[in-house]
Design brief:
The complex is a heterotrimer of chains A (295), B (327) and C (404).
Chain A (H helix, E strand, L loop, with lengths): L2 E2 L2 E2 H32 L6 H19 L3 H22 L9 H23 L15 E3 L4 E3 H23 L1 H11 L1 H6 L4 H23 L9 H16 L4 H21 L6 H13 L10
Antiparallel strand pairs in A: 1-2, 3-4
Helix pairs in contact in A: 1-5, 1-8, 1-9, 1-10, 2-3, 2-4, 2-8, 2-9, 3-8, 5-6, 9-10, 9-11
Chain B lengths: L2 H36 L2 H24 L7 H17 L5 H23 L4 H21 L9 E2 L5 E2 L3 E2 L3 H24 L1 H11 L1 H6 L4 H27 L1 E2 L6 H14 L6 H18 L6 H15 L3 H13 L2
Antiparallel strand pairs in B: 1-4, 2-3
Helix pairs in contact in B: 2-6, 2-9, 2-10, 2-11, 3-4, 3-9, 4-9, 6-7, 7-9, 10-11, 10-13
Chain C lengths: L1 H18 L10 E7 L10 H14 L3 E2 L2 E9 L4 H14 L4 E4 L3 H13 L3 E4 L16 E3 L4 H14 L4 E7 L2 H16 L3 E8 L7 H10 L3 E5 L2 H13 L8 E4 L4 H7 L1 H4 L3 E4 L7 H14 L5 H20 L4 H10 L11 E2 L5 E2 L2 E6 L12 E7 L1 H4 L15
Parallel strand pairs in C: 1-3, 1-4, 4-5, 5-6, 7-8, 7-9, 9-10
Antiparallel strand pairs in C: 2-3, 11-14, 12-13, 14-15
Helix pairs in contact in C: 2-12, 3-4, 5-6, 8-9, 12-13
Classes of the chains: A mainly alpha (295), B mainly alpha (327), C alpha/beta (404).
Chain lengths: 295, 327, 404
């Protein structure tokens, strides 16, 4: 067997693939954060809570109403998106124009509330969600066993990421969005409802988080605190990519998944720390992140 | 009114304000001295330690405009260093342990500052957060911290080899003295020319640069002082409680000190102290009461309400009120 | 009148105190503090339902012992040793609490028992896993009741190695708890003729285990053991099931797994996993009867910790009833002298180091076909006798044990 630094080639290929899959999760989550920061200059510390809500709602809807995975894939993000718009309308709007830091503090508070309330209702052991039958099992790729579900995750996550990037960077709607959030008075003058645009943008950003949550429901332990740990990691990813850079968030997400995967192979104890290490190094060399514009 | 009349009135106003301040300060001091006879001393010491932590944080955030999201690292570093030294080297007197803890935290602060200082706003917050996470991982995996068990049974020992700190009252007056010393130090820093430059940096950094100030050096110094005081708070806390734990290193602790400063009133001297008192007390009361399962969501509500309605914090709003209604 | 009575009783009490005998219930009330994680990671295994179990014990005693009312104080420890030590201190000094129950996170437990020791009160530890609580951190003022990591690392590995699982691969949470579990398991595996071929230390917490599971699969080991806890364990099990670890012939062993965790995973995902537990609700008639009452109160089945809280509180109250005193040493001595025979344990006894030793059980998670209801999750494979299960006193580092 071919060995690379004492690790069999087959194992390494498996680890790389796993890294890309985890990276797809990071990409989805950091994309939402980047959209919200890039267009609205809101630092959304409630993003982890929104991811968790996506997963929790999926499970709860299934238990209470028998709503299946496919419906949840659309319905849960929409519900969370609406919740996000309400948060934007009732809370975030009131601090528009203030220092960004206030949006961080406000959303941190919102996250504490959502997590705390759900913990009291559902406990912390986790809710059970059975994987849809169609995804059960997997295929042997020779170097690893690839569960069907992970294959699905990578495909759908990348599709959504690319679609979002295309919509914001290449379409007219995206142009309105970028213009509306950059120079709201001008766009208001063109008869565009900018406040609504802002609400929709925030709602869309948290929808992406919730979508990642639905994807996570069958494979991770669904608990009210599942988002609080990943939040910090995803923030690091966005900062590495350059806050507000849509494409940067996607590429960095996948890249960091791979970096983390390799660390898990060669030196597992450092695999949590490695992302933060990369972040510090990147910011030393490129103050605005890998893909950020110089501030 | 002539020019001199105006000057006289201003002087008189200043005098009466000075007197008011003097009276207020004296009353506060007497209250602080008597407090341990009415309130449980360890609880008071906890408040003082957190108040010092928040004052340290506020020096950076409130007066220099740098949001550090990693101050827990200094609190924990101070605590672990002091705890480890006092537990393992019985020859050390307590103040030597505390000084050592503070120095290590200061050195760490210098490291953070050198890496982070060029970044601004949210990037600064994120770099400090990332560095603090690295420190956290280090503590989790290290054997000397006792991992999730923490360090226990740290001896309080004696002050200068003479005063027995096992006695809660002695310990309290020691913590109080350190706290007041640091508080006065921060007050001096802020009103000094150096403090004025910090404020200028906060208001308009490019202008401070164009005025020829070496802004980075000012900021690094502010960061290092802040880290040192935060480390000192952690060191004292570990001696007071006779333990040091991972909770102090977790990023939630960095969030909590932001909450304290914000609720109390950032950019005011007294604000963080009031905020620490408020947050520590409310957490304690809630954890005991019928709402004990709801502490986190209630803290969340306090965050939200403060940001939306009382951005000045308790002290800031009171000041505003006093200025408006009492001329 | 009552005032007079109070003065009189306290006069009598202090007279007796001077006399050296303490056959009296202090302040004419038995005050119990329940300190546990009510809102964080350990909420479900003890938490609010543990309080329910404690209240059930008090109610079963009629709310009084020898006419002295039993009062309960409760607080959330927020998993913080600072909070724990100041809460316990205030309970003891202001509220005159006699006994503290619950106690989950090891940092919280160690901090609380230090304060309890200083003040000469009693602590009944039920939630904690760390075996150090009755080893290097033992005090004459607390009892560790339900379980600890020692039997967890004895029971499961011994049984599996004997069944032929010779080569082991251990996934360890990279902190003190995981390290000590890893060391214990390695020792047991080797003692029984098995071999640990590799260990991986993963950071705590780790949200995604696929990378580690893949490495475990590639190792070709017979057994993959999880030396971690809580969400790390459940995430690892979910991923192992997804990647078909057990289908490819490897055995999965979880060292610390609570009923609530298995319930969250469900029989489909968790089936076949072997684990060691101190108690299971469906293990005998008495346990079932109590679990039914518990379910009426809470809507869920009790974990071993819930049962331990109930049993230890009953044992404590009975000791007060028998001795007429709530003095910690008097009560502790009586608790040590009396064997425990109830819904929790048969012939359980409390050793001088404060460890309550009782039979432990090797269990296996049922398959969905075997499981007849939501909570019908374990089948008991083997009883691990008390003497075999817990750390022998001859290995003890506890200061109370005479061989030191």
């Amino acid at each position: 067997m071919t060995m690379i630094f004492g690790v069999p080639m087959a194992v390494l290929s498996g680890q790389l693939l796993i890294g890309v899959i985890n990276g797809a999760f990071y990409a989805l989550l950091s994309l939402g954060l980047a959209v919200i920061f890039g267009l609205l200059k809101i630092i959304n510390f409630a993003h982890g809570a929104m991811y968790m809500l996506g997963a929790m709602i999926t499970v709860i809807m299934f238990d209470a109403l028998g709503i299946n995975y496919w419906v949840a894939l659309f319905l849960a993000p929409v519900l969370v998106g609406i919740a996000g718009m309400l948060i934007e309308y009732f809370l975030l709007r009131r601090i528009a124009g203030q220092d960004h830091i206030y949006s961080l503090l406000l959303t941190f508070g919102v996250a504490l509330i959502i997590q705390g309330v759900l913990t009291n209702i559902y406990g912390v052991s986790g809710l059970r969600y059975v994987m849809p039958d169609v995804f059960k099992g997997g295929v042997n790729l020779g170097f690893m066993f690839m569960p069907y579900y992970r294959a699905w995750v990578i495909v759908v996550a990348l599709l959504v990421c690319f679609g979002t990037w295309y919509m914001i960077e290449k379409t007219k709607l995206g142009a309105y969005l970028r213009a509306g959030t950059e120079d709201s008075q001008l766009m208001q003058g063109f008869g565009i409802n900018v406040p609504l645009l802002v609400s929709l943008t925030y709602g869309f950003g948290v929808m992406l988080a919730a979508f990642a949550g639905v994807l996570a429901a069958p494979i991770y332990s669904v608990t009210p605190v599942m988002g609080s740990h990943i939040l910090i990691v995803v923030f690091a990813v966005v900062v590495i990519g350059g806050m507000g850079s849509i494409g940067g968030a996607i590429i960095t997400g996948i890249f960091m998944g791979v970096v983390e995967g390799l660390t898990k192979t060669f030196y597992p104890p450092a695999s949590s720390a490695v992302i933060f290490l990369v972040m510090v190094v990147v910011l030393m060399i490129r103050p605005s992140g890998l893909f950020g514009k110089e501030a | 009114m002539s020019q001199s009349d105006i000057q006289k009135t201003i002087l008189a106003q200043q005098k009466s304000e000075d007197r008011r301040k003097l009276i207020l300060n004296t009353v506060l001091l007497v209250l602080l001295l008597l407090a341990p006879f009415a309130i449980y001393p360890v609880f008071l010491m906890k408040i003082l330690c957190f108040a010092l932590f928040a004052v340290a944080f506020n020096l950076l955030f409130g007066f220099t405009g740098l949001l550090s999201f990693g101050h827990a690292a200094f609190l924990a570093t101070g605590g672990y260093t002091t705890g480890y030294l006092l537990s393992n080297y019985s020859g050390l007197t307590t103040e030597m342990g505390i000084i050592a803890g503070t120095l290590v935290a200061t050195a760490l602060g210098l490291g953070f500052a050198l890496l982070a200082i060029r970044r601004q706003g949210i990037y600064f917050a994120m770099v400090t957060l990332a560095l603090a996470q690295l420190v956290f991982f280090f503590f989790v995996q290290s054997e000397f911290t006792g991992g999730e068990d923490g360090l226990h049974g740290i001896p309080r020992g004696t002050l200068l080899g003479v005063i027995d700190l096992e006695n809660n009252l002695n310990m309290y007056y020691f913590v109080l003295a350190v706290f007041l010393g640091c508080y006065l130090l921060v007050q001096r820093i802020i009103s000094s020319p150096y403090g004025q430059v910090l404020k200028a940096i906060k208001q308009n950094e490019p202008r401070a640069v164009s005025l020829g100030y070496k802004v980075d050096r000012y900021k690094i110094l502010a960061f290092v002082i802040s880290a040192a005081l935060a480390g000192l708070a952690g060191s004292m806390k570990s001696v007071v409680f006779e333990l040091a734990s991972l909770n102090d290193a977790h990023w939630h602790m960095s969030g909590e000190v932001i909450l304290m400063t914000l609720v109390g009133g950032m950019g005011t001297l007294l604000g963080p102290v009031v905020g620490a008192m408020f947050v520590v007390n409310i957490e304690y009361q809630l954890a005991q009461g019928p709402l004990r399962d709801w502490v986190d969501p209630i803290l969340g509500v306090i965050f939200v309400v403060t940001v939306l309605a009382f951005r000045g914090g308790i002290v800031g709003e009171v000041q505003k009120f006093v200025r408006k209604n009492m001329g | 009148m009552t005032m007079m009575k109070k003065i009189l009783t306290s006069a009598v009490a202090s007279a007796l105190l001077v006399g050296g005998a303490q056959a009296e219930i202090s302040d004419n009330a038995v005050k119990i503090g329940y300190l546990a994680d009510m809102s964080g990671t350990y909420r479900d295994l003890a938490g609010p339902n543990g309080l329910k179990a404690l209240e059930m014990a008090v109610a079963d005693f009629g709310g009084t012992v020898n006419d002295a009312p039993i009062e309960i104080f409760t607080a959330d420890d927020r998993n913080s040793p600072d909070v724990a030590s100041s809460t316990v201190r205030r309970w003891i000094e202001n509220d005159k609490v006699d006994m503290v129950a619950g106690l989950v996170a090891s940092s919280v437990t160690i901090a609380a028992t230090k304060v309890i020791e200083e003040n000469g009160k009693l602590g009944l530890v039920n939630g904690s896993a760390a075996s150090s609580i009755t080893n290097e951190h033992c005090t004459a003022n607390h009892i560790h009741y339900t379980y600890d990591t020692y039997p967890l690392s004895v029971g499961t590995p011994t049984a599996i190695v004997k069944e032929g699982g010779k080569s082991w691969y251990i996934l360890t949470a990279d902190y003190a708890f995981g390290h000590s579990l890893e060391a214990d398991v390695t020792r047991m595996v080797e003692a029984n003729g098995g071999e640990v071929i590799d260990t991986i230390r993963h950071p705590f917490p780790t949200p995604d285990f696929s990378s580690f599971i893949l490495q475990a699969q590639a190792s070709g080991a017979d057994v993959v053991a999880l030396a971690n806890a809580g969400a790390d364990t459940t995430n690892a099990i979910t991923t192992a099931s997804e990647f078909g670890l057990t289908q490819s012939g490897q055995t999965l062993a979880a060292l610390l797994l609570f009923l609530t965790d298995v319930h969250a995973l469900g029989a489909e995902t968790a089936q076949g996993i072997q684990l060691t537990t101190g108690w299971y609700w469906d293990m005998n008639e008495e346990a079932r009867a109590w679990a039914d009452r518990f379910m009426e109160e809470t809507g869920v089945r009790p974990t071993m910790v819930h049962a331990g809280v109930y049993s230890s509180t009953m044992h404590y109250l009975k000791a007060i009833e028998a001795t007429g005193s709530d003095d910690a040493q008097v009560v502790r001595k009586h608790m040590m002298d009396t064997p425990i025979n109830d819904m929790f344990a048969k012939n359980g006894r409390i050793r001088e180091d404060g460890r309550m030793v009782h039979d432990m059980y090797l269990a296996q998670v049922k398959t969905p076909e075997e499981s007849t209801s939501e909570w019908d999750l374990y089948k008991i494979l083997r009883t691990i006798p008390a003497d075999e299960a817990f750390r022998p006193l001859s290995d003890s580092k506890c200061k109370l044990v005479s061989n030191n």
